[in-house]
Design brief:
Elements lengths: L5 H13 L35 E9 L2 H7 L1 H21 L14 E5 L2 H13 L7 E9 L1 E2 L8 E2 L1 H11 L6 E4 H7 L8 E8 L8 E7 L18 E2 L12 H13 L2 E3 L8 H12 L7 E5 L9 H8 L10 H9 L4 E6 L5 H8 L9 E5 L1
Parallel strand pairs: 3-6, 9-11, 10-13, 11-12, 12-13
Antiparallel strand pairs: 1-2, 1-3, 4-5, 6-8, 7-8
Helix pairs in contact: 2-3, 9-10
């Protein structure tokens, strides 16, 4: 007896569960959809729709939700109801799947088999009429792990943890992507959308820093304050010291006072007097005072004056951007950021620093430079 081809077998299987008149196995090309045929619910068949393997996760939460509930409870309830309705429609339109566990409080998780679908979903959510709700969204792509292989309804492990830490960096109405997701969607962005490089940053409690880019679109707010780096992740490239810092309290206090009052502070002195050690100690102590972090740039090995801006972009984790000068890349990065950059061992490059680095001070009124 001849066996039916795979397509015929699938049609027969679907009709068995979804209803419909009997058909001949060889006539599947002429099947017409019935309006009254119910949608197949895979969970009813013991199958879960969560994608496995390499997956893009979207994690979001509501900025200031506690304050909204406390001050405007009725408006908050109506806004959450509207969010739930829009969320269901947008997720379905972009082939997303929500795990059973949605995180704490007002947060939610959506999984996508395709990174481009995740980005399109994030854009649709940010463009949706959700006021007064403002979503913080993080997107990351990597291999996922199921909490229970026998009940694959939730994710656990490094991928979802990294996505959550990435989301922590964002402000309300801002969507940030990891470097892994960026590489997958560069050529598949929604119409009119583009990505803005925000640099490489450490993530709370995670050993590896992350490249961060922002999803931008003419319909969205694209200008935000510096990323919300935790105090524990506020120092970038600061040299590890193997000895305790003893004494020099007066000098420390004086330099800290200067940093509070001036935007350019220079430590001078003969070689070996301890300028670098003092700068390291100060940078570590004041890191929590700069929302944009403290960044260390060692220029000791730089002999070509033209390489100073390049060394700075590398220390800041900024990639080369075609069509944009290195100095312009630096200017765009520091603009609006409350940050401290320490230029160590720069005495042999003073002319270059005056020409290409000092203009950075004019790009941001909250940017401070400490040089040794």
């Amino acid at each position: 007896m001849a066996l039916p081809d795979p397509a015929s077998a699938l049609c027969a299987f679907l009709l068995m569960f979804c209803g419909g008149p009997p058909i001949h196995a060889g006539k599947h090309d002429h099947i017409e959809a019935r309006a009254d045929t119910p949608q197949l619910n895979w969970s009813d068949l013991g199958m879960n729709g969560l994608p496995t393997g390499t997956v893009t996760l979207l994690l979001a939460d509501i900025e200031g939700s506690t304050r909204l509930w406390d001050n405007q409870p009725d408006q908050a309830a109506a806004a959450i109801t509207q969010l739930d309705q829009i969320l269901a429609e947008v997720i379905a339109a972009h082939d997303g799947v929500r795990p059973v566990e949605q995180g704490e409080g007002d947060s939610f998780v959506v999984a996508f088999a395709r990174a481009s679908d995740a980005v399109a979903c994030a854009l649709a959510l940010q463009r949706a009429p959700l006021a007064p709700i403002r979503l913080r969204i993080g997107l990351h792509t990597s291999e996922v792990r199921m909490r229970d292989p026998n009940d694959p309804t939730n994710y656990i492990g490094p991928t979802i943890n990294r996505t959550a830490r990435l989301r922590e960096l964002a402000h309300g109405s801002q969507t940030v992507l990891s470097g892994a997701t960026e590489q997958l969607v560069l050529d598949q962005l929604p119409a009119g959308a583009w990505l803005s490089d925000l640099g490489t940053h450490p993530l709370r409690d995670l050993p590896r820093p992350e490249r961060v880019v922002q999803l931008c679109h003419p319909d969205l707010c694209n200008e935000f304050p510096a990323l919300r780096l935790s105090k524990a992740a506020a120092t970038h490239g600061l040299p590890v010291q193997l000895t305790n810092f003893v004494g020099r309290d007066a000098g420390m206090a004086h330099v800290r006072q200067l940093l509070a009052e001036q935007r350019l502070v220079t430590l001078t002195g003969a070689g070996g007097v301890g300028k670098t050690r003092l700068a390291v100690q100060i940078a570590g102590e004041v890191a929590g005072e700069y929302d944009g972090g403290v960044w260390w740039v060692d220029l000791a090995s730089v002999t070509d004056p033209d390489a100073v801006p390049i060394s700075m972009t590398r220390a800041l984790g900024l990639p080369n951007q075609p069509g944009r000068s290195t100095v312009d890349t630096l200017l765009r990065f520091v603009a609006g950021r409350q940050m401290l950059i320490v230029l160590d061992n720069c005495e042999h490059l003073l002319d270059t620093i005056a020409e290409s680095v000092l203009p950075l001070l004019g790009a941001s009124s909250s940017f401070t430079l400490l040089a040794t």
